[in-house]
Amino acid sequence: MKFDMSDYLDNQVKTVAKMMASLDSGTSSTDDADMTTPTKDEMKSALEASEARVDARLANFDTSVKTGFAELRTSFAELRTDMATQNGHIQTQMAEMRAEMHKGTVDIIKWVIGVGLASIGAMFTVSKMTEKPPAPAATQPAPIIITVPAQAPAPVEWRATPAPKK
What we know:
Helix content is 67%, strand content 0%. By secondary structure, it is mainly alpha-helical. Helix 1 packs antiparallel against helix 2. The chain is rod-shaped, with a radius of gyration of 66 Å.
């Protein structure tokens, strides 16, 4: 159960007010018959003492609240400062990470291009090494020459032909 200071103080004030009213009117309740009725001055002094205690408690409470809020303000100011510092560190780290990522990307691109060019060079070299020498132009094979011995001339008959007439 939670203690409520304002209810407690209200009950105390009502009790004292009833007592003051009964003193002023000169009446008393049947419950008070066995008791000695306090005088008006006693009631006033009791009321003043109660008010002094309440005022002291309220002043103490007010001081506690103000001190607590001041401490909260200080804590929040420190927290804001720490957060700003951390934010600066995070921004710096993110910038460094971006630079490293950019460098890594550039390095990867360089390697891909280098490996690509090396692969093309290797393929060119292998193709040149395995290439057959060019076939001679479509030349006909040398003709086969068969030498046939010359025939002996046919014997010519000499006839004397009449001389032409003159």
